[in-house]
Write a structure and sequence with these properties.
This protein is of the alpha+beta class. The chain contains six helices and twelve strands.
Length: about 240
């Protein structure tokens, strides 16, 4: 039996050997409908709003020295999907800061860009999770969860108790529209669960930044766990 698969706008991310595995998946994505059912749509994912109000000095305190354009690094009180925001990634033995758009196009042209990555076993995400060049850290001052009934929802913001800035575990990919990113989610900790019982972002501890940016698939999955609730607080 001969099957011919067609893929549009297939781009190999950053020259990695893992690009081959991703391209194979994308070429046959039309035959892999079960992947679509295993990943939630952006509307049902938990975190589609966060803020990043840190200064360059605060970012340097958290990440250490980095290169990249800092001229547009202004406070952002609300960051939504399809907006650009700063991310940090490894490059040439150091760190670089750059702007990327939030939301990675999925396996179907009819899908909205995916902002949260929960199903780490999906064949769509495995090549990125296996590729250190596809890893980023997403700087965050606070993130938001919604609570209440439909039509009467309100925002609840979460922060770190003793730090003005922290980082989500992110993935990035080159697309026809430029570099785009999404971040991982996991089960909620004891602080987030009463507000949103389904999930929370994967927050990487400062001591594991280098580990995340250089991780293979197995180590990436190990880092995808709830953050310590005692280190966090509700901001408002």
């Amino acid at each position: 039996m001969l099957i011919i698969c067609e893929a549009r706008n297939v781009l190999f991310p950053m020259g990695s050997r893992y690009a081959f595995a991703e391209s194979v998946f994308l070429l046959c994505s039309s035959l892999k409908h079960h992947f679509a059912s295993s990943e939630k749509s952006p509307e049902t994912n938990m975190c589609n709003l966060y803020r990043m109000t840190a200064t360059v000095d605060e970012m340097r305190d958290l990440f250490g020295s980095f290169t990249g354009d800092r001229t547009n690094l202004e406070p952002r009180d609300e960051i939504y999907p399809d907006q650009t925001a700063p991310v940090v990634r490894a490059e040439d033995g150091g760190l670089t800061l750059e702007e990327m758009m939030w939301g990675i196009p999925g396996w179907s042209e009819k899908q909205r860009p995916i902002t949260n990555v929960r199903n780490l076993k999906s064949g769509f995400w495995k090549p990125m999770l296996s590729n250190p060049q596809a890893k980023v850290l997403v700087p965050v001052s606070q993130f938001c969860e919604w609570t209440g009934q439909k039509g009467a929802k309100r925002k609840v913001w979460f922060k770190m108790k003793n730090e003005p800035l922290f980082a989500f575990a992110g993935l990035c990919r080159r697309t026809p529209d430029g570099m785009r990113y999404a971040f991982l989610t996991t089960e909620p900790n004891a602080l987030v669960a009463p507000v949103h019982p389904k999930a929370m972002p994967v927050i990487i501890a400062k001591s594991h930044y280098e580990n995340w940016l250089s991780s293979d698939y197995e180590n990436a999955v190990k880092l995808a766990k709830p953050y310590d609730a005692d280190a966090m607080a509700i901001a408002e």
